[in-house]
Amino acid sequence: MRSSKNRRGKxxxxxxxxxxxxxxxxxxxxxxxCPQCKEDDDQNETALLKEDWIRCDSCKTxxxxxxxxxxxxxxxxxxxxxxxxxxxxxxxxxxLKPPARKSSRKRxxxxxxxxxxxxxxxxxxxxxxxxxxxxxxxxxxxxxxxHMRGSELSREWVDNDxxxxxxxxxxxxxxxxxxxxxxxxxxxxxVARIVGENTPVEVMDVATQSNTPGYTLGRWAEYxxxxxxxxxxxxxxxxxxxxxxxxxxxVVPPAFVRELDWVEIFWPANKKGPGQVYPKVQLYCLMxxxxxxxxxxxxxxxxxxxxxxxxxAKTFYxxxxxxxxxxxxxxxxxxxxxxxxxxxxxxxxxxxxELTEGNTMVIxxxxxxxxxxxxxxxxxxGNFLHSYNIATQLRVREIESSTRVPKKxxxxxxxxxxxxxxxxxxxxxxxxxxxxxxxxxxxxxLARFLVSEVRLMEGSExxxxxxxxxxxxxxxxxxxxxxxxxxxxxLARELRWRVRLAARGASDAEDDEDGDVxxxxxxxxxxxxxxxxxxxxAKKGEGEEAEERVRNFVPKRWGAYAxxxxxxxxxxxxxxxxxxxPPEGESGEEAVWMQGWMEWDGAVIRSGEETKxxxxxxxxxxDSVVKDDSEEAEVERKHEVMVRVRRTARGLERQRVERxxxxxxxxxxxxxxxxxxxxxxxx
Length: 683
Fold this sequence. Notes:
Layout: E1 2-4, H1 18-24, H2 26-31, H3 45-49, E2 53-55, E3 62-64, H4 65-68, E4 77-79, H5 83-88, E5 95-96, H6 112-117, H7 126-136, E6 146-147, H8 155-160, E7 169-171, H9 188-195, E8 203-205, E9 210-212, H10 217-224, E10 235-241, H11 255-260, H12 262-265, E11 284-288, E12 292-297, E13 304-311, E14 313-319, H13 323-332, H14 337-340, E15 351-356, E16 360-363, E17 368-373, E18 377-384, H15 390-402, H16 414-430, H17 437-458, H18 461-464, H19 469-478, H20 488-505, H21 531-538, E19 560-565, E20 569-576, H22 587-599, E21 630-647, E22 652-665, H23 674-682
Parallel strand pairs: 6-7
Antiparallel strand pairs: 1-2, 2-3, 4-5, 7-16, 8-9, 8-10, 10-11, 11-18, 12-17, 13-16, 13-18, 14-15, 14-17, 19-21, 20-21, 21-22
Helix pairs in contact: 9-10, 16-17, 16-20, 17-19, 17-20
């Protein structure tokens, strides 16, 4: 593809372009036409001197871009072929340069309307054509989301409503939200004047969904003020961050957002504000003209969003972040599917929501959405991470990593913010502050993520052999805020242990499995019984009688309890390789290895003890280690005494429980099943 534009200056191509020839004589330029020019197509001299041309990479014929471009952007074209050459050879396919947020593979032009109707897309109107076709086909489900009053959104709502921040919420009037916005009547030229007309701004070209460089707010305001019929392209601004500007001082997020926002409550106050480097994602100004479209996306790191229509209107299309839908989005994003497939065809349902002036929408963690702008619109909003759905936030971060989203478009200082949140949460757990089961489940996901970061920093033998492990290990260390956290490994592991302890502390069942903390109570959910519990039931009547379990019996809650214990000990122990729990599904060995561990009465910490070979026929002994047949396990050990008291009919009941808790974990290495080993040995 060869192109010629007056604003490019000197043409790099040695071959003379039509612009050079036009410069010799304006009279000759006035008569110059391309093979696709219409007979009645008449242009003045100024327009011709600014004309854009493109050359077919096959037949080398030059064309006016306005005659053959169908409204798309010449800047993003990589290889271009005229229609006769495309018809003559199917290999002649138009491709694009790699967009800023995508991988470097060449892509076909996005053309969902062609897929749906079997016809070429209608230039800048192709998104509207597609939406009308999908709407007519009944592809959009009715809006099922709650409409709430601003005063109903609070920390108590999030704590007590199991659906809070799991589904979008629409607030029709801003009253009661505790939110401040610029005065009614604010215009885009006003935004440019207040923030600064020379301020650079990222502008998206809607037809290609790629960035258009070189825009300032002054130029953008001029474009926005142009009558719709005179706009050359449909453009959109979705990422003007206005913190530390006079306009930002006029915007205050909703009160409940400020109560939950990690940046607001966990990032040190002395490290925020003008001149400081911190995650500036709370205050955005969005400006879109009529017919603007933002394709399917998830806000960075799965952050939640508050979104207020200051003037105009928006139409949202939502996809629920189920595991299946997120997997479909992951396959679609950054792949060839993104250029040829409507994501809504790959998921279970798409919900359509229409917002008008004065409406506010809260979009929860991980919701996949696309946005259409029916009229010129001005929006204020912001992003925030919180402690009520950390697992999904981390899942979206994994998707960003797998689809290679550039760091520029990821949540800034995400891991460092996680460390600040973990530090504050651990302090609260030590102070015996109350946490809901939902938050405890969320904090467990955070603890596991940070433990994985710690293992990167510690650089186990397995991690050292991984590709690019050195760079990842340095990045993990650099992400720790050393101003607040002096011992990151200890913090991450203690947080994990204390979350587990807090999740069990209010439970009356001493023999509950030490599994994951449940995210919420689910009616009709099932719990697996442990092997120990099954064995106890089988031995009922032998010796001491097992306690009778009564259906639907809930014991009286303890009035007070306290846990006293020493510091968490973290050690490494070598044990026989076959003492490691086998892969799930090998039920024949389940009871054997569990029973062996239950009967073992050894100490985690040993000194001056020799390892010895073991008789293969002897009863399991965890301490016995055969040379060259052992693995090192990571052990967390905590000795504690728990005392709790509650009222009884005639007085009180006091329990004193002394226990040692051990958490054994092995390196993440490939574990083969018996069948795989048998096949391997046979070959």
